[in-house]
């Protein structure tokens, strides 16, 4: 069975979220940096000290639809629609990967505090799925680069 080397899971997971956001932002909206930052943004909750408690914990409020809406509206106010759209798909792609993990995400927080988990055959962070995300992401970036 394929597994991650010890101590590398978090780094690989974060890099995967960034790559997927980067690729989506580039290919769909020609805004790679916005997609990259948005793909990583939900895991900014790693920076919250544990003493804050819920919802300022990993996979807390930053993994809820209210946060997605807030960052898209902020991007639209500060930049343009294409950038806001790239932020939306980058941030949303993070949700789609994390929702397939056993921990799930509190998508409808603060209305519902329960975590949503899609019970699919394999988690979005399984090693072979990560390899697939990387191959697709890098292929999409290659296509975007050549197309420019």
From TrEMBL:
One of its GO terms (molecular function) is hydrolase activity. Keywords: Hydrolase, Membrane, Transmembrane, Transmembrane helix. The chain crosses the membrane at residues 7-29, 56-78, 85-105, 125-146. InterPro entries: YdjM-like. It comes from the Archaea. This is Metal-dependent hydrolase. It holds the Pfam family YdjM.
């Amino acid at each position: 069975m394929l597994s991650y080397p010890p101590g590398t899971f978090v780094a690989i997971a974060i890099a995967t979220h960034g790559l997927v956001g980067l690729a989506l932002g580039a290919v769909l909206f020609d805004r790679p940096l916005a997609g990259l930052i948005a793909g990583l943004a939900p895991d900014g909750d790693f920076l919250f000290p544990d003493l804050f408690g819920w919802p300022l914990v990993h996979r807390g409020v930053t993994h809820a639809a209210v946060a997605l809406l807030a960052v898209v509206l902020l991007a639209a106010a500060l930049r343009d629609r294409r950038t806001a759209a790239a932020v939306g798909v980058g941030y949303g792609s993070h949700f789609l990967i994390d929702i397939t993990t056993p921990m799930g995400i509190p998508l409808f927080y603060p209305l519902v505090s329960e975590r949503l988990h899609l019970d699919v055959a394999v988690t979005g962070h399984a090693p072979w799925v990560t390899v697939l995300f990387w191959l697709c992401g890098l292929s999409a970036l290659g296509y975007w680069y050549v197309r420019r």
